[in-house]
Specification:
The complex is a heterodimer. By secondary structure, chain A is mainly alpha-helical. Chain A is built from 13 helices and no strands. Chain B has 11 helices and no strands. Classes of the chains: A mainly alpha, B mainly alpha. At the A-B interface, helix 1, helix 6, helix 7, helix 8 and helix 10 of A face helix 1, helix 4, helix 5, helix 8 and helix 9 of B.
Chain lengths: 315, 309
């Protein structure tokens, strides 16, 4: 167990190192003089010198990396060359929106997927299962950038159920208006998750229901419902939660897309804006923070499951 | 001689992450149970989907020869028109024919989708088959490297590289191809591993066959069907990624039509002209559906372990 966790931790550190290296070298893919590209041709020499110093571009590559990582570790990601705001504060404002979006979407996705999968697995190949399985298969072909505009047409333009684009209200201002503005994007995100969770859980449940301990439980005279919930769902729920960790990548893509469409000022929205304004240090900062967050989150999920289910750590 | 009927063995313990990731990507092979495992028939819907894929590919290739309107021609006497006889799917805000744009737009998705997977196979597939066959240090190093790559959230890296490097179609293809290679590496490696200890491989070696001969004549033909079916689902995944980039305005730039950037351009006129978004969205939906279905069905067809589920 301890050995497994140490191994995972070493892997985490290695991966974080490569992430920092990769993100650092992004600036070096820029063609020509990076200070000109970043600041634009019209900025003055003083700003250029500051940037040169910040990036350390006159030193050997390895020293540049060490200087940069030193800044990063002390919480300095540079500043935006458009708004002159510190990159860290841009991220601090935008990040909570993504977190809220992802949490609400998962609060919707899990119950829906679990209920659907339980009903489907109870009678495999019967009408309910066939309809749900076929629908979710079609759902695999509906990425967020298709679902989001269609949902906006249907629910905020035609039926006025949800507010339209650019209606975001911070949670500190009004809790309920905030939730109201987050519901549509969260549902869009939830659809992709429902499809994935439903398909995993249904397969898992049907496989489990063919195990001998289920036959045993049934032969003891347990009701179907009890067998399904207590004996089949419980072991499957762990792999379901673990799959949520892997799903995080597609959630981020989805979050970026809905933020862009509905103009929610989250990380995705800020990232696309920064790219369009060639605000490279903001891009670099957001990429670094998101990558690190995902990797650390996956590590925590892994750690959590190796505690809950010791079999994972055994090999 | 090679034996195409040898089943793919369950993947070894070390590859659980990759299979989980694959399942999460494509939603697993849930359809497996709705099929009778004993008799493997592809079914009529498989052929409908395969025909659809072929049709889309052919019209995209021969778009120039078809009696289509110029996808870039702006007809100011016919702005924002609904579907009609003159314009099958209507026109956009610049009077361009949407039907023709959807067909030409397929080119971007197809070239990037198939191109990226071919690049991914060239990198990941080659390394995977070598690492599964040679084992040893080479395997340890490439295997660990693939985990490092897979841990990095691909979409963020892709957006960043596109932003810093450029968004010409070949750059997008190359970036997505490199991004796809670790997962293809894992799939190829796992299935090579299961074959490299098989009797027919050992007997080939005993007969004095060279490594090259064993790899190309014994292992590759067996590994190929499983990889081909997985690659189709990979193409679908790449098309989704390209579409997401295009939707964010980061892929191939207008005026070149692509399904993703058509949706992006149409989204500002959602209220008045919803078909601007609807038709490219339908094009992507049906194409992805067909790719997923064909890929999924082929995988069941070639993978005996799924049938046993």
């Amino acid at each position: 167990m301890a050995k497994y966790i140490t191994k995972r931790f070493v892997a985490l550190v290695v991966i974080l190192f490569f992430i920092s290296l990769g993100t650092f070298f992004l600036v070096h893919i820029l063609p020509g003089d990076p200070t000109v590209t970043i600041l634009g041709p019209n900025d003055n020499a003083q700003n250029r010198a500051i940037l040169l110093h910040q990036l350390g571009l006159n030193k050997p590559l390895w020293d540049q990396y060490l200087i940069w990582i030193g800044h990063v570790l002390s919480g300095d990601l540079g500043q935006s060359y458009v708004t002159h705001q510190a990159v860290t504060s841009v991220i601090a404002e935008a990040f909570p929106i993504d977190i809220e979006l992802i949490i609400i979407s998962q609060l919707i996705a899990f119950p829906v997927a679990i209920v659907l999968a339980l009903f489907a697995a109870r009678r495999p190949n019967k009408t309910f299962d066939k309809v749900a399985t076929t629908t979710t298969f079609a759902g695999l072909a509906l990425p967020p950038f298709i679902v989001a505009p269609l949902m906006v047409i249907a629910f905020s333009i035609h039926f006025h159920v949800f507010p339209g684009p650019a209606s975001y209200v911070p949670i500190s201002q009004n809790f309920w208006t905030n939730i109201d503005s987050m519901l549509l994007p969260s549902i869009v995100l939830a659809i992709g998750s429902i499809v994935i969770y439903y398909r995993l859980l249904r397969n898992d449940l049907i496989a489990t229901l063919q195990e001998e301990f289920i036959t045993m439980a049934r032969s003891k005279g347990m009701t179907d419902r009890r067998v399904l919930l207590k004996h089949a769902f419980r072991p499957s729920s762990i792999s379901l939660l673990a799959s949520a960790g892997i799903n995080i990548a597609s959630l981020i893509t989805g979050a970026f897309v809905v933020e862009f469409l509905l103009q929610l000022p989250g990380l995705g929205y800020e990232l696309v804006n920064a790219i369009n304004q060639r605000d490279y240090l903001v891009v670099q900062g957001i990429v670094l923070v998101v990558a690190v967050a995902v990797v650390v989150l996956n590590f925590i999920v892994d750690f959590f499951f190796s505690v809950v289910d010791p079999r994972i750590a055994r090999d | 001689m090679t034996d195409r009927l040898v089943p793919v063995e369950p993947q070894e313990a070390g590859t659980t992450i990759s299979t989980r990731a694959v399942d999460a990507d494509v939603g697993g092979t849930a359809a497996a149970l709705t099929e009778a495992p004993a008799k493997k028939r592809l079914g009529w819907f498989f052929w409908v989907c395969a025909a659809w894929i072929a049709l889309v590919i052919l019209t995209a290739i021969f778009a120039g020869l078809l009696p289509l309107k110029d996808p870039l021609y702006q007809d100011y006497s016919a702005l924002n028109q609904g579907p009609s006889g003159a314009h099958l799917l209507g026109t956009d805000d610049l009077g361009r024919d949407i039907f023709s744009r959807v067909i030409y737009g397929a080119r971007v998705s197809l070239v990037i989708g198939f191109g990226a997977i071919l690049i991914g196979l060239a990198i990941g597939g080659t390394l995977g088959i070598m690492s599964g066959y040679l084992r040893g240090k080479f395997d340890t190093i490439t295997n660990s490297a693939s985990y490092v790559f897979l841990a990095y959230p691909a979409i963020v890296a892709i957006i960043a590289i596109v932003a810093f490097w450029g968004n010409a179609w070949w750059q997008i293809t190359l970036i997505l191809g490199v991004a796809a290679s670790p997962i293809l590496y894992r799939v190829v490696r796992a299935s090579t591993l299961s074959y490299s200890t098989k009797e027919f491989v050992m007997s080939a070696r005993a007969l004095g066959a060279t490594n090259w001969r064993i790899l190309t004549k014994e292992i590759l033909p067996n590994v190929l069907p499983a990889i081909a079916s997985f690659s189709l689902i990979g193409v679908a995944t790449v098309i989704v990624l390209e579409g997401s980039l295009a939707f964010l305005g980061l892929s191939v730039q207008p005026p070149t039509p692509s399904w993703g950037n058509m949706i992006n351009e149409g989204r500002t006129e959602l209220t008045t002209d919803p078909w601007l978004v609807l038709f490219p969205a339908l094009a992507i939906f049906f194409f992805l559906l067909a790719l997923n279905f064909v890929g999924d069905r082929l995988r069941q067809h070639f993978d005996v372990t799924v049938g046993r589920l």
